[in-house]
Model the fold of this input.
Amino acid sequence: MAGSTKVFTALLERCQARNMIALVRLVVRQRTSVALAALVPQKEVLDETNAQMLPPGFLVYHLPFAGELTVDFCSHSFYLFFYLDFVFIFYFI
Done:
């Protein structure tokens, strides 16, 4: 699509500048179920020789809907991971 690279770059730069993430409806293919996801901006990382170690872009974290949570957090140990003022919950059974 014409201009999609510019839109992607502008969204990435704006999210990084404002220290924000994007919450999106994720549709992987046509006629598949919709998922909720968080797009977390990732900055480009270069080593000392200016070789690219990590490319710029978004990390996609799939988020569950409320009805999909089946873990009783009182009976399992879990960790809260704070990233860009967004809380990710990792649990261990």
Remarks:
- The chain has a mean pLDDT of 77.
